[in-house]
Amino acid sequence: MAGLTLNAGSLAEALLARGPASYAPWLDRGPHLELIEQRALPELRSEAWRHTNISRWYQTVLNGNESVAQSRRIEFAGAVEVVDFEESRAAELLELRGDELYQLSAHPIAALNAMLLGAGVAIRVPARGGRLHPVRVVDLPASYQRILMIVESGAEAELIEEPSPFTHRLVELVVQSGARLLHRRLQAASPHRDCSLVAVRVEANANYELAQLSLGGDLRRNDIVATLSGESAHVTLRGAWRLDGTRHLDNQVAVHHDAPGGTSRQTYRGVAGGRSRAVLNGRIEIAPGAQRSDASLSTKNLLASDTAEVYAKPELEIYANDVKCSHGATVGAIDEDAVNYFRTRGIDGQTARSLFVRGFLREAIDDVETARRLGVIQ
Amino acid sequence: MSLLRVEDLHVEVDAKPILAGIDLEVRAGEVHAVMGPNGSGKSTLANVLAGRPGYDVTRGCVTVDGEDVTGLEPEERSLRGLFLAFQYPIEIPGVSNMEFLKAAVDAHALGRGEDPPSAVEFVKRARAAASRLALNPDFLKRGVNDGFSGGEKKRNEILQMLILEPRLAVLDETDSGLDIDALGVVADGINAFRDVGNAVILVTHYQRLLNYVVPDHVHVLANGRIVRSGDASLALELEERGYGWLDA
Fold it and tell me: Would B153 be classed as within a structural domain?
């Protein structure tokens, strides 16, 4: 209804009246319930939600999301262990995860995930699993979903999140020492409103690589928290997006260097056209004692129309003295000199622009074929 | 029939007159050199022939093979056989030289009503052209002009010319910034391109390139007009005496 906004307080009332979900009853929902009871859900236009109207998402939380899948579809092979959160084994795997991978106070809407959880999967990639096939999460049959993946020491794994509707998805990842995880997130254009949180702990000499491709949604918010907890951990985050129409994409990324000798590389490239809005806040935090950390962040954005909006903000917080940090953010229009250069070679303006955009985005894309299939590039 | 005919061409940039009545005729098989001091309008002439935006033709016209191209878009001129080698080629990271060239070759094939060449056939052609210009085949995989040296950028322009086989190539100071070896390579490329069916306009400051690519006609541009035309010996005379004596 026009003019109606749902505030955090009335959503909390409604949730408390409804009570927690009955799915996976072994889950400790104490802190989450408490957060809601204390009315600590974010309010409209709070700092972390400056660019995304959270009350529109609350509206979806209250009304439900009818587009969710009817059944679970996960594809995997080999020695990977995959269990439903409903099973008691999932509790053991959660135990294996150890400490929380994110702070609930910093990501309060994760409380809604716990309260309303309806589908979840816990995945363990064993230390000596041999050659590993990718784990492909195609569909989970609920609006509130959780994926837990533990890649044990020395193992190599790939997690692929196929495009699938949800209202909130929590992805918890542990990459144990010397292990490697390639995480692909494929976010197709969506008429719906979704939020997700990826929280990953990267232990000593482990390697985590994120490749996120997004087309935006009616409202889409991605929070990503990567913690380099062990010495010489390595994190690579890549994000490429192309938005048109009134699509919305808000990426909030935080990389915490908590141990010495870690390296992190962040590369984001986005194109915003129509009346779309794209946000990338990238934060790098280097803890005291995380000496010899080496962190970089580059975000470049193209405005393909006069009415699109782009917000790009890198932030650094450094508490160690022997570190290397760099960041850069640019927002600009398509380079008409480049387009003209193409045209003088016989390539029409439209093809020239699309080649240019593709080239621009490709700096943040490692798998061109997938990006093309999803429609991020042509 | 002349391949290119420029008649009474007047051009303004930001309402400032740059070319003030150029007449030029180029026949197939000819090489013309356009020389002149800084600011005389040489690059404007090159750019306006290619249809670069920002140059307003206020009077006169340009015809190619008898067709008036004055109002045509850059890509339409390219498809009619006009080619401009840029003085400052643009860097386009992320788009490989190979895919850029393929897109151009495909556009030209479609423009002629032909099927685009197969990938294999195209790569063969591109490699042959690269090796003629002493360019490593890896060069084709790199982003267009991305991180290229000055000499590589100029050779890349010539590479495009060899692959697109235009009717008329306008080379805007392609010789500037080249060392003597690279100049030789570029000149070899231009000479290999020369044919009875096409023509070349060399826009240059210096006589140097003209030792390698001998022009049939030399024109001197000053204040937006051609003030003197002659044969190759005119370039030598300019080298010796500078441009000052022409004003007299």
Answer: no
| Facing B93 at nearest CB: one of A348, A351, A363 | A363
Taking CB atoms and an 8 Å limit, are B90 and A337 in contact across chains? Answer: yes
Give all strands of the β-sheet with B4-13 in edge-to-edge order. Answer: B16-26, B4-13, B56-64, B67-68
Q: Range of A228's domain?
A: 8-374
Burial of B77 (0-12, 13-18, 19+ CB in 10 A): buried
**Is A23 within a domain?**
yes
Q: Are B13 and B44 in contact (CB under 8 A)?
A: yes
**Structure confidence at residue A4 (pLDDT):** 59
Structure tokens at A173: 């990842």
What is the domain extent for residue B18? 4-95+167-247
CB contact under 8 A, A344 and B95: no
**CATH number of the domain enclosing B80:** 3.40.50.300
- Answer whether residue B15 is part of any domain: yes
- DSSP code for B55: -
The tokens describing A110, both together, are 């994760």
Read off φ and ψ for residue A144, nearest 5 degrees: -115, 120
Residue A1 binned pLDDT confidence (cut-offs 50, 70, 90): very low
Question: Is A208 inside any structural domain?
Answer: yes
Report the residue from A337, A346, A355 with minimal CB separation from B108. Answer: A346
Task: Give the whole-angstrom CA distance, residue B76 versus residue B57.
Answer: 17
pTM of the model: 0.87
What does the DSSP 8-state code read for residue A126?
A: -
Instruction: Measure the CA–CA gap between A259 and A203, rounded to whole angstroms.
Output: 9
With respect to residue A117, please indicate whether it lies within any of the assigned structural domains: yes
Residue B100 falls within a domain, yes or no? no
Q: Would you call B75 and A359 a contact, using CB atoms and an 8 Å cutoff? A: no
Burial of B12 (0-12, 13-18, 19+ CB in 10 A): middle
- Is residue A94 included in any domain, yes or no? yes
State the nearest Cα–Cα gap between B130 and chain A, in angstroms: 17
Residue A1 exposed, middle or buried by CB count within 10 Å (0-12, 13-18, 19+): exposed
Under a CB-based contact definition with an 8 Å cutoff, are residues A344 and B49 in contact? Answer: no
Residue type, B181: D
User: Which residues of chain B neighbour A348 with C-beta distances below 8 Å?
Assistant: 75, 107
**C-beta atoms of B53 and A340 within 8 A:** yes
Residue in this structure with the two tokens 């004596």, named with its chain if needed:
B245
Nearest CA in chain A to B161: A345
Report yes or no on B155 lying in a domain. no
Residue of B nearest to A269 (CA): B94
**For chain A, what is the domain count?**
1
- Provide the ipTM: 0.95
Identify which of B90, B104, B143 has the shortest CB distance to residue A347.
Answer: B104
Q: What is the pLDDT of residues B118-176, one digit of tens each?
A: 999 999 999 999 999 989 888 899 999 999 999 999 999 999 999 999 999 999 999 98
pLDDT band at A65 (very low <50, low <70, confident <90, very high): confident
- Number of structural domains (chain B) is 1
Mean pLDDT, chain B, rounded, equals 93
